[in-house]
Write a structure and sequence with these properties.
Elements: H1 6-22, H2 47-58, H3 66-74, H4 80-90, H5 96-101, H6 116-122, H7 132-147, H8 163-171, H9 176-181, H10 186-190, H11 197-207, H12 215-225, H13 227-242, H14 249-267, H15 270-281, H16 283-293, H17 295-315, E1 330-335, H18 338-348, E2 354-359, E3 367-370, E4 378-380, E5 389-394, H19 400-419, H20 426-431, H21 436-444, H22 460-463, E6 467-473, H23 481-495, E7 504-511, H24 534-545, H25 547-555, E8 565-572, E9 577-581, H26 586-589, H27 591-616, H28 623-635, E10 651-654, E11 669-672, H29 683-690, H30 692-708, H31 710-713, E12 721-724, E13 729-732, E14 761-764, H32 768-777, H33 779-786, E15 791-796, E16 801-806, E17 809-812
Parallel strand pairs: 1-2, 1-7, 3-5, 7-8, 10-11, 10-14, 14-15
Antiparallel strand pairs: 3-4, 5-6, 8-9, 12-13, 15-16, 16-17
């Protein structure tokens, strides 16, 4: 072995730091919140192995408590045959009786690797209100909230020199450690803090005696200790890299957290330093114990998943007999979101001549949107992608942009004044009474005054003049006719709609309607970057109605009849109302068609609300009162559960709709239309498996993680949420780490879990060789399958079977 030198040690430390930082997944800001697998960088490892690592490094968990599995067993939601199948899949040397007996055995709770803050807490010599871990978290979190603030705070923090340099300056004047925690050596220690983040990391690891082969895991544990802020910094890095840049905030945050370890170590006496050296020797044993602790529980988890799929695996093949539908009267393309499944089924029940389709809700437009009078653009596409084109509002009268900007500026100035110290007493005394009417209205009559937060600064009649259109590249240069045709062709091919066009084709995006909800974007369209899909749907409809685009599509073999009219729409998932945006000449020629489809949509809304009513506790209401109740939930500023979002999601079906039209999928399935016979080069299959399926996995695993460990990967009690930094994220209460993920109210109804944590089951109707080629080409997708982050099934219409992709290849399954 070659001798180590200072240069090789430095290079090894940089590599360890990079690997530790690379383990953190991003979290998106509140105004564009996206569900994301919080373990996305770790999918190259088997899921149970990652669970063991996280348990050792942070105390996190990726399984429900064993008592929950016992409850599911006793309730009959999984049975002996599911246990036996799960055991056979795992190859474990365990019996069904062993697993059932484990329900009566206490759940193993492996220790977490101790950090310096834990040693300080163990040997504390006085009682403090805060633990050392909580104190360090509070100091870091408040500093980060100030540093990253986007206009919420009246006084911004110092940002000179970057994150670490700003913290170093602040730490040297911070009196809290000495005054509240009696840390005697603090003042002298912080005076000698290294000048840069890299120097802090190197000195911290050296002085604390962390050996070379433990540094990555030690630094990973430190980042997981401030996982919320680490995830925010990872988002800054993610977005910078999407445009070819980079960002160092995550590395600097690591230096700050390591800096606190170093400060506590250097400010303490020899007894604590000696205990720290003993603590480090426990790390390997803790790692081994964590890997073994819950191995049998993964079999229980798989048995629950197999039970949930048993009906689907047996009933889905019945759809193999369904023929390709004839040209319908109406076609309606919805987002593949699980909430659309309920509404699509209700709409299809209005007539056999109504066909629905599913596709990613950004409708093939990788765009950013610049609203009228906006200072910046917002992405309206999946988080995996970077925008290529721009949509702007067209058709507005002259002067409206300036008018809206003036109104928005005035509203911002008024809000700033109300929040200022100057207005705290005189303002309330002088004008408080004038707000009584609006307070009463918002509290008791909000459903009669449904304000659209995205229409701020515009009257209703002014808003109706806006027509979002695909106008340019990001640099402002116009799109060529060829580019517009290519965008349209790719979308139609992905949708599987290249022939048999109906007279009326709806493109229906979706969005939620809630009030006083920090996580409102999490209920909007994930494929549109946490925004409603209205803009994408309207722009796509206008593109497909364009005569020049249709001529170009004809040259590509996609003949759209002159009688076909595309209409954009928006499905309100909170109230199950659909709004259509009728734009263009078709409004006159298709007046009767539109009247008929509006009636069908209204009736479908009644049916969809009726299906959702039991989960909302509204099953006893009449149709009229039920509609009023869901509208009230959408407008009530005290409502913590306006809708259930994607709770219950567990399946993704990539196949023609006729394969699943005979089934009630209970709002649990993502549905993406796909016809393998039309996809000659399998490019569409590849795009679906690497795009929508991955986004579906992100959503699925965000819900999974927020359920199994809401303390670390969820955002806790929504009632206690406080927005941080304008739109960065939330605190639960007045401090602590930045919270990520979903609130408890999005997953639990107060008595039971509404969302069952199940890994996504993906069913694809395509040939096995075609699927395998995509897996072979795309490592990340292959890792998701082979490392059991999701489960992949093939629907074989020729052999009328369902096969599962296992580690050893494809295996036929029985329902």
């Amino acid at each position: 072995m070659a001798a180590r030198t200072p240069m090789t040690d430095h290079a090894a430390l940089i590599e360890a730091t990079d690997r530790a930082c690379a383990r953190i997944a991003p979290t998106w800001p509140l105004d564009r919140f996206l569900a994301v697998n919080p373990f996305w960088p770790l999918t190259h490892k088997p899921l149970p192995e990652v669970a063991g690592e996280l348990a050792a490094l942070s105390g996190g968990r990726l399984l429900m408590p064993r008592a929950w599995y016992a409850g599911e067993w006793r309730a009959g939601r999984f049975r002996s045959e599911h246990l036996r199948e799960a055991i056979a899949e795992s190859g474990a040397d365990v019996t069904e009786h062993d697993l059932i007996a484990s329900f009566w055995i206490g759940e193993p709770t492996p220790s977490r690797r101790p950090l310096v803050v834990d040693v300080m807490e163990t040997l504390r010599r006085r009682d403090h209100e805060l633990s050392w871990g909580d104190f360090v978290m509070e100091r870091i979190s408040r500093f980060c909230a100030s540093y990253f603030d986007h206009g919420q705070a009246q006084v911004s923090g110092v940002r000179e020199g970057g994150l670490y340099a700003s913290w170093r300056t602040q730490a040297q004047t911070d009196q809290m450690p000495s005054l509240f925690m009696a840390l005697g050596g603090y003042r002298s220690t912080v005076a000698s803090l290294p000048n840069t983040a890299d120097e802090m990391i190197a000195r911290g690891c050296a002085d604390l005696g962390v050996c070379v082969n433990e540094r990555e895991r030690y630094m990973s544990a430190l980042l997981l200790d401030v996982n919320g802020w680490a995830s925010w910094c990872a988002y800054l890095r993610w977005t910078a890299r999407q445009t070819g840049g980079d960002d160092d905030h995550l590395r600097e945050l690591l230096a700050i957290r390591l800096g606190w370890e170093w400060i506590l170590y250097c400010s303490s006496d020899e007894a604590i330093r000696e205990e720290w050296r003993f603590a480090m020797t426990s790390w390997p044993a803790i790692d081994r114990a964590a890997q073994l602790a819950r191995s049998d529980d993964w079999i229980l988890q798989r048995a629950v998943e197999l039970a949930s799929l048993s009906r689907v695996r047996s009933v889905l093949p019945q759809g193999f007999d369904a023929a390709r539908p004839a040209t319908p009267r109406v076609q309606a393309a919805f987002c593949l979101d699980v909430r659309s499944e309920v509404f699509r089924r209700a709409l299809e029940a209005q007539g056999d001549d109504i066909q629905t389709l599913g596709v990613a809700g950004f409708f093939g437009l990788p765009i950013e949107y610049v609203p009228l009078a906006a200072d910046s653009a917002r992405p309206q596409l999946p988080g995996l992608l970077a925008p290529k084109y721009r949509i702007t509002d067209t058709g507005v009268p002259d002067g409206l942009e300036a008018t809206r900007r003036a109104r928005l500026d005035a509203a911002h100035a008024w809000k700033a004044f109300k929040s200022s110290s100057l207005s705290s007493f005189a303002f309330v005394d002088s004008v408080g009474l004038f707000f009584a009417g609006s307070i009463f209205r918002d509290a008791f009559r909000a459903e009669r005054h449904r304000a659209n937060r995205r229409r701020a600064g515009l009257k209703a009649t002014e808003d109706q003049t806006r027509m979002p259109r695909l106008t340019s590249h990001l640099d402002g240069s116009p799109l060529s006719a060829e580019e517009r045709c290519q965008i349209a062709a790719t979308f139609l091919q992905t949708l599987g709609l290249t022939r048999d066009f109906a007279r009326l084709v709806l493109l229906v995006g979706h969005g939620s309607e809630t009030k006083n909800n920090a996580l409102a974007a999490g209920l909007d369209c994930g494929a549109c970057g946490g925004q409603p899909g209205e803009v994408n749907a309207r722009a796509a409809a206008a593109l497909l109605n364009d005569a020049d685009v249709r001529a170009g599509l004809g040259a590509r073999g996609i003949e759209i009849p002159s009688t076909t009219f595309f209409v954009g729409g928006l499905h309100n998932t909170t109230t199950d109302e659909v709004t259509l945006f009728i734009e263009g000449a078709g409004a006159r020629t298709h007046e009767a068609d539109l009247a008929t489809v509006r009636t069908a949509l209204d009736r479908a809304g009644v049916s969809a609300r009726r299906e959702r009513a039991p989960r909302l506790g509204l099953a006893e209401l009449s149709d009229e009162k039920l509609h009023a109740a869901v509208v009230k939930r959408a407008t009530n500023w005290a409502e913590v559960r306006p809708e259930w979002g994607l709770a219950g999601n567990s399946m993704f079906i990539v196949a023609p709709r006729e394969r699943s039209r005979h089934m009630d999928l209970e709002g649990r399935a993502f549905l993406h239309d796909y016809r393998f016979e039309d996809d000659k080069d399998h490019a569409i299959l590849e795009a679906i498996m690497t795009g929508p399926v991955v986004v579906g996995h992100w959503i699925n695993f965000q819900y999974y993680a927020s359920t199994v460990d809401n303390e670390r990967y969820g955002s806790g009690n929504k009632v206690l949420h406080n927005i941080v930094g304008g739109h960065l994220g939330i605190f639960e209460g007045n401090g602590g780490d930045l919270r990520i993920g979903l609130s408890l109210q999005s997953l639990h109804d107060g008595e039971r879990w509404v969302h069952t944590p199940l890994r996504l089951a993906v069913f694809i109707e395509a040939s096995r060789p075609a699927i395998d080629r995509v897996l072979e080409k795309h490592v990340k997708v292959r890792e998701l399958v082979e490392n059991e982050w999701l489960h992949l099934f093939q629907l074989d219409a020729t052999e009328r079977t369902v096969l599962a992709r296992r580690k050893g290849g494809w295996q036929q399954v029985v329902g």
